[in-house]
Amino acid sequence: MSRNLRGLSARQGLDRSLYLATQAASRSDVSRGFAEIAAEFLVSEASLIGASASYDMPRLDQAGKKVLLCAGTACRVSGRQADLQAALSGHFSEAEIGQVTCLGHCHRNDAFLYDQATWTCADLALLGRPGASPPAPRPVPMGTLAAPPVLLAPIPHPAAYYAPLLGLRGAAEPALRAIRASGLRGRGGAGFPFHLKVEAARAAASDQKYVVCNADEGDPGAYSDKWLLEERPHAVLAGMLAMGALIGADTGVLYIRGEYPESLAAIRAAIGELDALGLLEDGRRGAGHTFRFHVIPGAGAYICGEETALLNSIEGLRPEVRVRPPFPTSQGLFGKPTLLSNVETLANLPFILTAGGEAYAAQGLASCTGTKLVSLDGGFNRPGVYEVPMGTPLRQVLEGLGGGTRYPVKAFQIGGPLGGLVPLAQVDGLTLDFEAFAEAGFLLGHAGIIAIPEHFPLAELLAHLFAFTARESCGKCFPCRIGARRGQEMLEGALRQGTRIDPKLFADLLETLELGSLCALGGGLPLPVGNALTYFGAELAPLFREA
Ligand SMILES: Cc1cc2nc3c(=O)[nH]c(=O)nc-3n(C[C@H](O)[C@H](O)[C@H](O)COP(=O)(O)O)c2cc1C
Ligand code: SF4
């Protein structure tokens, strides 16, 4: 019964998208637009308002913001925001300058979004010129310790690149064997074995299946998915196309952060190239089956990176986290079996399917195979995107590749807001892989690395993390919805009003968040906070009452 209802309400699918219609209306005459959409899609206006209010971008448009300054963690701790704000105030009124988190320019710390393009301080002179076109994207520094590189390797002409991947439907077993042998684990943070997802999605019986690429890279400090989308779009698309053939899906959806306009353009251009080459059409040039890509731009909601909130978002529902099971492989997009994976996970597949699973597993560790992209922020002497074999000593990444930091630091925030806070003293014991980080009480996550300057107060960082979680919470469960705000109040009270935090109450709050949250937004916040209390207890002690 509920499945039938879901099928009926979702009948508009992707060709006429409820999400895109709602986003368009949110930016213009909301009341008229919503009434028409409600009638067309058979949904209530209240649910449209709920969905629309979950995203930042339409609201910033409505508030008359013309330029959005990056306020991600890396830019905050870099100390460059005040200068950028001052520079922009020469071009825009205070009311026109808004904030956004994050633009994926963590290597520069001077980015802002204007006129649907990413600009940096170096482009400020262009702003005043009438008719000036947006600046061309600047290359991101990159490097690799991988031999051979898997993700940083240049891609040949698409016709040659896709050819070995297109006949998979008729040769599934060797492909499945290669995926199993590769030991590939999801790169979106959780490290889930990829072959289990593929096998489950393949085994699910359905008239319709989907491959969804999670390109909502929201962790401040991480910009490696952005790099792949812009510099290796065909690796991502080829991975999706191959998985479509393997699980029996004819539709791929890329959900790409709205804060990444250049990524959206690069992926659209690459899909256009494929189309022009006839590589998506049935029977032409040996494709073997028809595949259609849809590109959905996000609209500024961190929680849409969580896979089930992402699916709700695509469907035009409020981007709330779904209870699992059912998992997306059995009931995903529009209730149909869906293989949903991260950009980097998918971009590994062309190598695995052509060079072989063993070749992939030859790099890295037995438990954690292959390579990983790491993003280093502007605190490093050589910030950029680096590809390293799993298990590489962290020190080698920070110093050998990153060239050390530009200023004295006291810790590294690794893996985004839900990742850990690694103090300097712990760096030497750590290797860059899921297990080493988990065993040491940290989280590798997406491997974005932010250098926290020695002078930056950790209490400010913690207040920022609580505020970020409170702001981005989908609101479904109370530990996160209420707890994140209470934690923010406690820390800001101690920082700005001289109140003292009750340590027992704070510990209770962390325990409730960890045990009672439905997803890792609320559930993951206690990790960096706990790291800070463990390693920087003396610095934080003045904020707390005597126990
Ligand atoms: C709050 C939150 C944010 C997340 N953000 C992302 C993200 O930006 N990109 C991503 O791939 N996975 C993100 N994830 C993980 C996804 O839910 C999911 O595990 C992942 O996309 C699965 O792909 P993988 O198996 O290839 O890693 C997030 C999870 C949570 C709880
Ligand atoms: S932990 Fe937060 S973001 Fe996750 S489901 Fe609960 S309220 Fe939503």
Task: Quickly list its features.
single chain; 547 residues; alpha/beta; Glutaredoxin; Rossmann fold; 5 domains; four-stranded mixed β-sheet; 26 helices; binds flavin mononucleotide; binds iron/sulfur cluster
The unreliable regions are 283-287
**Structural classification:** alpha/beta
Radius of gyration: 23 Å
Report on the biggest sheet.
6 strands, mixed
Output the strand order for the largest sheet. Answer: 5-11-10-16-13-14
The termini sit apart by: 55 Å
Number of helices: 26
Question: Could you tell me which ligands this complex binds, including any ions or cofactors?
Answer: flavin mononucleotide, iron/sulfur cluster
Total strand segments = 16
What's the gist of this structure?
This protein has 547 residues and is an alpha/beta fold. The chain contains 26 helices and 16 strands.
Please explain how this structure is put together.
With 547 residues, the chain is α/β, with parallel strands linked by helices. The protein is 43% helix and 14% strand. It contains 26 helices and 16 strands. Helix 2 runs antiparallel to helix 3, helix 21 runs antiparallel to helix 22 and helix 22 packs antiparallel against helix 23 (503-516). The structure holds flavin mononucleotide (FMN) and iron/sulfur cluster. Flavin mononucleotide binds next to strand 9 and helix 24.
